[in-house]
Amino acid sequence: MTTRTKAALALVLLLAAAVFLAVRVSAGGGRHPRLRARLDLVERHFADLTTSSDTVEARLQALAARVADLEARLAACHCVPPPACIPCTCAADGAACGQDADGDGIDDCLDRCPCEPGPSDQAGCPVPPPPSCSPCPCVVEGGPCGHDADHDGIDDCADACPCDPGPTENKGCPRPICEPCTSCATVPCGHDADGDGVDDCADACPCRPGPDANRGCPMGRACQTDADCDDGNGCSLDVCLGGVCEHKCLCLGPAGFDCGPGPAR
């Protein structure tokens, strides 16, 4: 089998595997939304890679370039792990080798942690974490012990989160960025976490503001092409479907919010 034939066969197997995985994910419905979004991204990424190239080699080169571009986009969203760290080989005399694998400004051969960035006063290793939180033991149930480990003004024995500072009204625990109503036995519940005017218990997106007509979720704007839908978020796949923009999340954003359009509150 020639090199050209092997390359063509590898390309066919790669595409077949992608189709097979896409079918399986489609069958799974909404259980894998981000995986489905990534497959949609792959499909659109290679949609215009036609068979107009004259040779298998040219097609493979074009495919490799697309794969590299796709990996770079996912890496920027922290969807894929970073490449493995490979420090340089050091001579027995301990001399510098001129390479800095972790980019901390310390030569690999002078760096005690060549794959973990750290300051020079730590020999190139990360700064140790602060001492662990040590709340006091509560001998008497509900009684104060006179200690406040997280310095939030609440005694450890009255603090539901003694190592995470938070307000008294939240029992000493930090407030979540978005705090929708948790009891929806009665609709409405009288709370609107994202401030869009739609009660949390009637809001399909309680942490992303949107109109009542769209069940409290952000509305996609009108469009003609995918380019019209670019929301500036590299971690969402922006597509124009039926003249309306849709944004599919590739990764979870900061604090666990989805990365679709609309501010996270």
Mean pLDDT: 73
Segments where pLDDT lies below 50 for 5+ residues? 19-33, 253-257, 260-265
Q: State the end-to-end distance.
A: 59 Å
Largest sheet: 2 strands, antiparallel
Radius of gyration: 26 Å
Spatial order of the strands forming the largest sheet: 1-2
Q: How many runs of DSSP E, i.e. beta strands? A: 2
Oligomeric state of the chains?
A: single chain
Structure report:
The protein has 265 residues and is mainly alpha-helical. Among the domains are: 177-218, no CATH class; 220-265, no CATH class. Helices cover 22% and strands 5% of the residues. The chain has three helices and two strands; from the N terminus they run αααββ. The chain has helices at 3-27, 33-45, 56-76, and strands spanning 236-241, 244-249. Strands 1-2 form a two-stranded antiparallel sheet. The termini are far apart. Mean pLDDT is 73; it is low at 19-33, 253-257 and 260-265.
Put the structure in a nutshell.
By secondary structure, this protein is mainly alpha-helical. It contains three helices and two strands; from the N terminus they run αααββ. The protein has a two-stranded antiparallel sheet with strand order 1-2.
